[in-house]
């Protein structure tokens, strides 16, 4: 009579299932319940608005930086109190930064006004630099034309400079006579063009009307010299 032998090393299937079930039912396999996440639609909407606002601001800055306006640039020096000539203005395109630059379209009106301060070449004209009336050309002032020789005026003298008008005695004067200042800070209104031999010597200055006859008389005798005052512009 045969008896069936079962493998000794392998437990019965039921025992295996029971052991597995017992392992899952232990305290280590138990998980705590997770509370459901609360949705906050207000915060999500605020974040979306901030993102959109930042993108819009960036776009506006980029577009604004590309805006160009037409402005007036000064090409030659214009002294304080002098008219701003059309020849001294040229058109430039600059970024719109909000500064009150004078539009190039207003140049005919600008040419009827005067410089409040000395305008140097390269200056971008603003409204604060222009005045409708000039104290330099007002009552009590006189324009005096001079025809000077080399040595009687400094080289490089330009419109808008300030000069001392000095009486230099001629040969018939006393040997020890010194120059006398007739005008302390006269404004140079115009200077003649320079030639091969230097400046032409034609200079127009603005002085007080009280000294203009004296300057004119000395100038006719060749006894006038000009000394530039660079720091008095």
Provide a descriptive summary of the structure in words.
It comes from Streptosporangium album. Residues 1-36 are annotated as: Disordered. The chain crosses the membrane at residues 42-63. With 233 residues, this protein is of the alpha+beta class. Among the domains are: 68-131, Antifreeze-like/N-acetylneuraminic acid synthase C-terminal domain (Type Iii Antifreeze Protein Isoform Hplc 12), CATH 3.90.1210.10; 141-232. 21% of the residues lie in helices and 25% in strands. It contains 4 helices and 11 strands, in the order ααββαββββββββαβ. It has helices at 13-24, 41-65, 107-110, 212-220; strands at residues 68-74, 89-95, 114-115, 130-131, 141-147, 162-167, 180-191, 194-195, 198-199, 202-208, 224-228. The strands form 4 sheets. The chain has a 5-stranded antiparallel beta sheet with strand order 5-10-7-6-11. It is rod-shaped. The termini are far apart. The relative contact order is 0.13.
Name a few traits of the molecule:
single chain; 233 residues; alpha+beta; Type Iii Antifreeze Protein Isoform Hplc 12; 5-stranded antiparallel sheet; two-stranded antiparallel sheet; 4 helices
């Amino acid at each position: 009579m045969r008896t069936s032998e079962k493998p000794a090393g392998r437990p019965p299937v039921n025992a295996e299932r029971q052991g597995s079930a017992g392992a899952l039912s232990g305290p280590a396999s138990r998980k705590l319940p997770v509370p459901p996440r609360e949705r906050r639609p207000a915060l999500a909407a605020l974040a979306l608005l901030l993102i959109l606002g930042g993108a819009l601001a960036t776009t506006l800055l980029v577009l604004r930086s590309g805006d160009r306006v037409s402005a007036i640039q000064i090409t030659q020096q214009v002294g304080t109190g002098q008219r701003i000539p059309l020849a001294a203005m040229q058109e430039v395109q600059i970024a719109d930064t909000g500064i009150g630059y004078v539009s190039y379209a207003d140049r005919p009106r600008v040419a009827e006004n005067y410089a409040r301060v000395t305008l140097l070449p390269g200056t971008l004209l603003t409204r604060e630099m222009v005045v409708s009336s000039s104290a330099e050309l007002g009552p009590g002032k006189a324009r005096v034309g001079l025809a000077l020789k080399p040595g009687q005026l400094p080289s490089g003298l330009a419109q808008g400079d300030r000069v001392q008008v000095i009486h230099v005695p001629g040969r018939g004067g006393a040997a020890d006579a010194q120059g006398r200042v007739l005008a302390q800070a006269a404004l140079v209104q115009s200077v003649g063009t320079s030639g091969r031999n230097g400046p032409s010597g034609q200079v127009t200055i603005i002085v007080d009307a009280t000294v203009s006859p004296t300057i004119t008389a000395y100038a006719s005798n060749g006894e006038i010299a000009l000394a530039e005052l660079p720091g008095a512009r």
